[in-house]
Amino acid sequence: MCFIKPFIGGYHEDSQLKCFIATLIITTSIIILVTFNNLNLFSIVILNLFSIFSIYNKAPVIDSRFPLTKEHLIKKNKILSVTNSSILFLLTLIFFKIPWVSQTITWTLLIQTLLLFNKYKREDS
Fold it and tell me: Which cellular component terms (GO) are annotated to the entry (predicted)?
């Protein structure tokens, strides 16, 4: 998570306790997915390509609580996020014969990518 999350933005909590609980849930979900799912090479390639494509088109997500306003930083984060996710994809291919490694990387990248799409506007009454 530390290789892409700082650069893609996305889901943020408003307190450290909520952040800890969310991270615990995400980590537990990844462990469960790796334990109970067996991805073949085709699935790993498709999930990783989806993640890279989504990161390329969506990242970095600008959050009002953590604003990123300088254009050169936005561009730098986009380049770093796509580069890092591509490197992680290559690692999943290199370590394909060690399923727990390749699948942990794949599920982590996918879940972090899906958290890019959580933005919604809540209207306070």
Answer: membrane
Kindly state the greatest CA–CA separation across the chain.
Answer: 54
- pTM value is 0.80
Range of the domain at 29: 14-117
Q: Which residues of 41-79 are buried (b: 16+ CB within 10 A; e: fewer)?
A: eeebbebbeebbebbeebbbbeeeeeeeeeeeeeeebbe
What digits encode the pLDDT tens for the residues 51-87? 999 989 887 777 666 666 778 888 888 898 899 999 9
Beta strands, E only, 42-123: none
Strand partners, 63: 66
In a domain, 122, yes or no: no
State how many domains the chain has: 1
Q: Are 54 and 115 in contact (CB under 8 A)?
A: no
Domain assignment of residue 82, yes or no: yes
Q: CA-CA distance, 31 to 18, in Å (whole number)? A: 20
